[in-house]
Amino acid sequence: MAVYEYLARDTTGNELSGIYTNVDSVRMLRAELRKLGYVPIRVRRAPGTRGSRIRQKDVAAFAYKFASMYSAGLPLVRCLEALEEQVTQRALKEVAADVRRRVEMGSSLKSAFEPHRMIFGDFFLGMVEAGESAGELPSALDMSAHYLEKRLELHQKTLAAFVYPLIVGVVCCLVVLCLLVFVVPMFSRLYGRLHVDLPGPTRVLVTLSYVLRHWSWALVLLAVGVFLAVRRLPGRVRARAGWDRFKLRVPLLGSLNRLIVVSQFVRTFGILISVGVPIIDALETASAVAHNGEMSRIAGELQKATRAGQPVSHSLAAHPIFPSMVVQLVVTGEEVGILPQMLEKSADLLDKDIDKMTTSLLLKLEPALTILMGLIIGLILMGVYLPMFDYMANLAS
Prior knowledge:
This protein has helices at 26-35, 56-71, 76-86, 90-104, 109-113, 117-134, 137-161, 163-194, 200-214, 216-231, 236-249, 253-274, 279-290, 293-307, 312-317, 324-336, 339-396; strands at 4-9, 15-20, 39-45. The chain has 397 residues and is mainly alpha-helical. The protein has three domains: 4-45; 56-160, Receptor-associated Protein (Up-down Bundle), CATH 1.20.81.30; 163-397, Up-down Bundle (Receptor-associated Protein).
């Protein structure tokens, strides 16, 4: 994520400076400053940050250090100064410096982190706001760091499980491309010299080979055009919602996606209400953290049911996306008065189910992909050699 520095003047003539990370260009930052009523004096990309990217593991480490130092009793500004000194990643160092400057100018910690919401996320900012308002900022920061670590761990496990299938798929595509670009044209010229009639499968391969060799630039332009058209599609919000629903219902991977989305939603919801965030606000933040349009729709219905006075367990039971185990634990949590703990426990159990399902899917995908790759390559080779078999049969007769 790019980091931009700015120097601007407010309506009273005072100069102020800072950095922005949630903009895409200098022009966009100038427009943003003008919206705030500032006159831009100097706006530029921060030196040394071109191409830098703040990773989630860097954010989790930042949160852990921040929580540890603040829990030990260090003043807020001193914690941020220490983080600014310790962080080695340039872009994150600039973020820490900007947050420190805003706090020194009298901003609340949540307001200081607000310009960097794209980096730290809705959950972290919600926890900081709740911790400040309830006077429990140390525990809120500590729980935020723990949550970021758990989410990162789940993300890394899921990605690692599908590395092998991805490699197999890439290798299969490369082999197919090599056959179509290099092997098929050789046999096509050979059959042309021999005046052999090409069967249907071979003609299809020759046509594909010709398109790839002579019209690849047009295919690239077409792909880019489709991508840009989809991004600018007026109904892309509805399309995104449809895509999110499809991801939860697609065969094989749908069940895994549902568990991941529910786990993120439930864990976020439980941690937020544990620090005093109202249930309505916690549901809204949890739906944003889940990053799924279908879950956002469900969260909206849960908010309506909660406003109507229904227990959380009854609201969850009305939506099949939540496993019965989660609903039962929530029922127990409401009856005993330990709802946050039961929500976190259900998220832990869901994470275990995710690990088991990921392992099971991997065991099924590996041989299936290997067989599929063999079939594709075998069919291509069969299409290539079919005319040769016909030619040899004619010679023998």
